[in-house]
Amino acid sequence: MGSALGREYIRRGWHVVGVSRKSQLSGEFLSELCTNEQQSGEDAQALLKYNPDLVILNAGQIETEIDPKGIPLTEMTESITRINYLFPALLALEASKLSHDRILDIVAIGSIADGSPSAFGPVYHASKIALHYFFSGVGPIVYNANKNVRMRLYRPGAIKGPLSWAPVNRLNDKGYKIRAKRCESAPEANEVARTIARWIDGNEWIGTYKEPFSFKIFKWWFALAPNSFYRLQVFGWRKGSKFV
Ligand SMILES: NC(=O)c1ccc[n+]([C@@H]2O[C@H](COP(=O)([O-])OP(=O)(O)OC[C@H]3O[C@@H](n4cnc5c(N)ncnc54)[C@H](OP(=O)(O)O)[C@@H]3O)[C@@H](O)[C@H]2O)c1
C-alpha cells in the first residue's frame, strides 16, 4: 500500500518522501527516501522536518508468528503495538507542537478490524482499536488548539497481499476457507490507494472502506454486551482455531 499511495501522489504531481526502515529503496513511487525507524518521538520529529502538507501513517504489522498454542509472542506484540499505534500517536503529538501556517493532514491508516476484538488476530485488532480511539480522542483537542493540524483516520478492509492472509495462521480448515474468500475477493492496493487519496481530498475525520455487515454486527455486539461477546470469542476459538 505504501508504494501504491506513493505512486498515486506522484501521479498527482506531489513531492513524495517515502519513509522506510530500509536504507535503500527506489522506484517510481517516491521522489526521495527517508530512512527512519518509526519508533520514537525523535523519529517523528525527524519526519516533520520535511515540513509536509500530508503525512500518511501507513506502515503496519500483523501477527505473522505465534507460539505453538497460538498465543501472541512478546516481541511481536511490542513491535506491532509500536508501529500500528504508538508511533502514529507520537507523530501526531509532535506535529501538534509545531506552528503551521497551512493545513497539515495527518492520516493514520487503521483497519475495519478495529470494530471489535478477535481471537484470530488479537494484537493487530487491539493496536488498530487503540489507534482509532487515540485519533478520535486526541484529534479534537489538537484541532481546537491549532485548526491547521487535522488528525484523521482511514479504515481499509482487506487488501490483496500477504498482510490480509496472516490471520489464517490460527484458523482450522473451515476458518481458512472463510478467510480465503475474503482475501481472494479483496481489491488491489492501487485501487485502495486511489480511494484513500480521494477520501483525503474531502473533509471527513474517519473514513471506512466497505465494511462487511458481519463486522458491523460484531461491533455492536461488543459495544452493547461485552461479556457475551467474550463468550462468543471463547466459542469461536473452539470452533475455528487449529489448536483445539
Ligand atoms: N492488507 C490488508 O488486508 C489491510 C487491511 C486493513 C488495513 N491494512 C493496513 O494498511 C497498511 C498497509 O498494509 P499493507 O497491506 O500494505 O501491508 P504490507 O504489505 O505488509 O506493508 C507494510 C509496510 O509497513 C512496514 N512495516 C511493517 N512493520 C514495520 C515496523 N515495525 N517498522 C517500520 N515499518 C514497518 C513494512 O516495511 P518493510 O518493507 O521494511 O518490511 C511495509 O512497508 C497497514 O497499516 C495495515 O495494517 C491492511
SSE string, helices as H and strands as E: HEEHEHEHEHHHEHH
Question: What's the mean pLDDT score?
Answer: 96
Number of strands: 6
Rg, nearest Å: 18 Å
Description of the structure:
- This protein has a single domain, classed as 3-Layer(aba) Sandwich (Rossmann fold).
- Helices cover 50% and strands 11% of the residues.
- The strands form 2 sheets. Strands 3-4-5-6 form a 4-stranded parallel sheet, with helices on both faces. A two-stranded parallel sheet has the order 1-2.
- It has helices at residues 2-11, 41-48, 74-96, 122-145, 162-165, 173-184, 189-201, 213-224, 226-240, and strands at residues 17-20, 32-35, 54-57, 104-109, 149-155, 206-208.
- The longest helix has 24 residues, at 122-145.
- The two termini are 35 Å apart.
- By secondary structure, the chain is α/β, with parallel strands linked by helices.
- Helix 2 packs across helix 3 and helix 3 (74-96) runs parallel beside helix 4 (122-145).
- Helix 3 (74-96) links the parallel strand 3 and strand 4.
- NADP nicotinamide-adenine-dinucleotide phosphate binds next to helix 3 and helix 5.
- NADP nicotinamide-adenine-dinucleotide phosphate is lined by residues 1-2, 20-22, 38, 58-61, 79, 83, 109, 111, 156, 158-159, 161-164.
